[in-house]
Design goal:
The two termini are about 30 Å apart. The protein is mainly alpha-helical and about 140 residues long. The protein is built from 5 helices and no strands. Helices cover about 75% and strands about 0% of the residues. The mean pLDDT is about 90. Helix 1 packs antiparallel against helix 5 and helix 4 packs antiparallel against helix 5.
Length: about 140
Amino acid sequence: MSRAAFSIKAFAVYLFVVGACFVVAPNLLLSIFGIATQEGWVRVVGLLAFNIGAYGWVAARHDIKAFFTASVWMRAEVFVVLCGMAVLGLLPPIMAVFGVVDLAGGLWTHLALRADALGADALRTNALRAEPGGCRVA
């Protein structure tokens, strides 16, 4: 499994946990942030988070790098939008924590993609140095 795939799987687990909490008992998680609600929308958000986690899990199992790259950009967007909403007073500022988690996960995936690419480049370089008999030239 590539480093990027591992980072996506880890983020998928996070989304499974957060999503399930929002669907089953949203105030359990929200109370940590000093928020409570009886509105159904938060359960819908939980369902969506859980489903996005499933997409990530499947993409990681199949090492779909295009998905990994798109997720980096989308998780950065989540950070910007949640922080913007907090600054504008549309969300309690503490909700920006979810954006910070997304940004951190996106950064991890970005760095993992770079590390995977560097590793692949090193393999290609070593393959080019191989002699016909299979021995590498130092």
